[in-house]
Write a structure and sequence with these properties.
The protein is of the alpha+beta class. It is built from eight helices and 15 strands.
């Protein structure tokens, strides 16, 4: 008898289900403690997290079916497990989630609503024995297409921080300190984001804090009017993710009848998009795990770059 599993995909405002579909895999965290098996001290300190990772690494088998859960009654689709447990460091930061524990899965994008609660509210991974889910999973899985698995992203090398400009290195040191202290978004704005923009070349007079409800508004020229907006920054707490705040920034732009790039940040992670779509990522950087492609973010944020 084929075992059916369900796996969660984050939260409504910070879901990583598209990563599953895009790369033909499923992921679970926390990954930062390292490859399974963990030592006993780590298992004891991680509690229920360790149980989920242990099940993921040791109990699932090739050929099992997995439903990708939206919430307690809806799913994004179903997949068939095709590989053994593996560790993929390139998924150490998926919109803030550390999800390095991985298995390859061939997915069928097939949203379905069971019309009633069939999954536990907050269970990230579990076996499924609910008849309605089991029946649907077997039926839907019969149409999973064969074919090669999608390519995995290449793990990019870490940046040599000594090669960065000194002002940016100093800001990264501040980020590490504030992150360790658990600072809030306002402190990150004052001590990190504004200094970063200045370090990249923006003069003070073109950076407005809390302008028209926007956390930070950057202008290409004076006066500070909507038609001169070039960048808006929306700062959020670390567990908010970078997609949901994009819509808030977009709403502010609409209120001003303006167009500008949107930078969402929690002080550590920065995602730059245009104002056409929340998924229109231009560049991304995690200042505490700075990898080679992240340097593009600094280039895009400089005044001499076309950020309009």
């Amino acid at each position: 008898m084929t075992t059916i599993w369900q796996i969660g995909t984050g939260t409504d405002w910070r879901s990583y289900h598209n990563t599953f579909f895009r790369h033909d895999l499923m992921l679970i965290g926390p990954g930062n403690p390292g490859v399974w098996p963990w030592d006993q001290q780590t298992i004891s300190s991680r509690g229920v997290d360790a149980c989920f990772v242990r099940y993921f690494a040791t109990q699932i088998r090739a050929g099992d079916l997995v439903v990708m859960r939206v919430n307690s009654q809806r799913v994004f689709g179903v997949g068939r497990v095709l590989g053994d447990y593996t560790w993929l460091e390139q998924f150490n930061d998926v919109d803030g989630w550390d999800l390095q524990h991985a298995r390859r899965v061939k997915w069928l994008d097939k949203p379905h609503d069971f019309g009633a609660k069939v999954f536990g509210r907050a269970c990230r991974l579990s076996r499924v024995k609910v008849p309605a889910v089991v029946e649907w999973a077997h039926s839907a899985a019969s149409t999973i297409a064969a074919g090669p698995l999608a390519a995995l992203p290449v793990q990019q090398p870490l940046v040599d921080l000594d090669a960065l400009e000194q002002p940016i290195r100093a800001i990264i040191d501040v980020v590490a300190t504030l992150h360790r202290l658990g600072s809030n978004e306002r402190e990150m704005i004052v001590h990190v984001v504004v200094p970063l923009l200045q370090a990249l070349g923006w003069p003070r007079e073109l950076i407005a804090v809390e302008w028209k409800h926007i956390d930070i508004a950057v202008f290409r020229a004076l006066p500070r009017r909507p038609e001169n907006l070039v960048l808006v920054v929306e700062a959020k707490r670390p567990d908010k993710g970078t997609h949901s705040p994009w819509y808030q920034a977009k709403r502010y732009l609409k209120q001003q009848a303006a167009s500008a790039k949107i930078l969402v940040t929690d002080g550590v992670r920065y995602r730059l998009s245009d104002d056409t779509s929340a998924d229109s990522q231009i560049a991304y950087a995690n200042l505490l795990s700075l990898r080679a492609p992240s340097l593009e973010l600094f280039d895009h944020l400089r005044p001499d770059h076309d950020t309009r």
